Each structure stands twice: as structure tokens, then as C-alpha cells.
Amino acid sequence: MNNTILHINSSGRLSGSVTRDISTQLVTQLQQQQGTTPVQRDLAEGIPFIDENWITANFTDPEQRTEAQQTALGFSDELIAELQQASHVVIAAPIYNFSVPAVLKAWIDQVARARVTFRYTENGPEGLLKGKKAYLVIASGGVPLGSDVDFVSPYLRQVMSFLGIDDVTVINANELGQAANEAEVVEKLSAIAENS
């Protein structure tokens, strides 16, 4: 595992996005305090959904996969390698219609792979991406984080835990976006990064 930050953006807005702005500032603070190197993955550029070819390839033993099946899993392998190499994961996630953006769900489907990022044991599933720190930068709009209709932060926490990442910090991007000034935002994010 390298000392890198995997920075995942999922907002469809390329400018004026609260999650993009706050997560970028958090990555900057982590770089300064932890000496980490960022790796950018912008899901708004497009990410394929899993399909029958992908599923068949995934359930085929690696030694038995055809060249076409290896190709079908190639992008998934690339995304998983980014996760495996990262020491920190920053996921910027706006809430769209009570859930995560479709591109973020597609990324989750691509990286949650049995025998690669998790495995089944006699005691249930075990995540294989241990020893990492995740930050969930969530902009909720009219959905209060932690409320009965917040399905995103519990879901993303569960996904991280399923993959073996139990050290998770949820950051309310709306609150930080409404801070009095830029210095206040930097101060709060600096404190979060320092406590990593």
C-alpha cells in the first residue's frame, strides 16, 4: 500500500459542486499533513455498468478466463488496483433522489469483487482492503445527514466496511460550504486531516 489518496468525484456538476470543492480542499490538507500523493478518479467522465459478460468473467476462475473475459474485467482491475494502492480514500458524493449518483453505484459494482476485495468465510463476508482511512464528503441538499431519510451515509459506510475499510469519517459538505469564510473551511478540514 502506497501513501496515496484516491480521490473519487461522482458529482455530475463539473463546476459549482460543493462535494468537488470540499473534497479537493480535504485532499490538499491530507497532502500537506500526511505527505500523501493524490490519484484522481472522476466518475463523471463515465463508467460502465456491469453486464452479463462481466458477471460471467467474474465468476470464472482466473486461471480459466478467456482473453475476452480478462478484457471484460480490465477496467474493474484498474479501479481495484487504485483502491488497493491507496492509504486514504476520499469519496465526494452528492445525494441524488435519496441515493448516490448512478456513476458511484457503478464504481461500487466494479470494485466489490469476491476473492479480490472481499471473500466469504464461515463467519460471513470479510473485506480485504484493511488498513485504509476513508472520508465520505456528502452534500445532502434537503436531506439532513443522519436523518431517517439519509440512505447515503449509512450505505457508503456499509460498502466501505464490506470492503474492509472500517475507519470512516463522514463530512457534511453542506455545513462546510456554508461556513463564514474560506479560512474557517480550511481550519475545519485541517483538523479532520490532522486526526487521521
TrEMBL record:
Q: Which residues form a coiled coil?
A: none
Question: Which enzyme class?
Answer: oxidoreductase
Q: What is this protein called?
A: FMN dependent NADH:quinone oxidoreductase
Question: Quaternary form?
Answer: Homodimer.
Query: According to its UniProt record, which cofactors does this protein need?
Result: FMN
Residues annotated as binding FMN are 11
Tell me which positions the record assigns to the signal sequence: none
Taxonomic lineage per UniProt? Bacteria, Pseudomonadati, Pseudomonadota, Gammaproteobacteria, Thiotrichales
**Gene3D superfamilies in UniProt:** 3.40.50.360
Family stated for the protein in its record: Belongs to the azoreductase type 1 family.
Q: What is the cofactor note? A: Binds 1 FMN per subunit.
The superkingdom listed in its UniProt entry is Bacteria
- Flavodoxin-like fold domain residues are 4-193
Q: Which GO terms describe its molecular function?
A: electron transfer activity; FMN binding; oxidoreductase activity, acting on NAD(P)H as acceptor; oxidoreductase activity, acting on NAD(P)H, quinone or similar compound as acceptor
What this chain does, per the entry, is described as: Quinone reductase that provides resistance to thiol-specific stress caused by electrophilic quinones. Also exhibits azoreductase activity. Catalyzes the reductive cleavage of the azo bond in aromatic azo compounds to the corresponding amines.
Q: Which reaction does it catalyse?
A: N,N-dimethyl-1,4-phenylenediamine + anthranilate + 2 NAD(+) = 2-(4-dimethylaminophenyl)diazenylbenzoate + 2 NADH + 2 H(+); 2 a quinone + NADH + H(+) = 2 a 1,4-benzosemiquinone + NAD(+)
User: Which UniProt keywords are listed?
Assistant: Flavoprotein, FMN, NAD, Oxidoreductase
The EC number of this protein is 1.6.5.-, 1.7.1.17
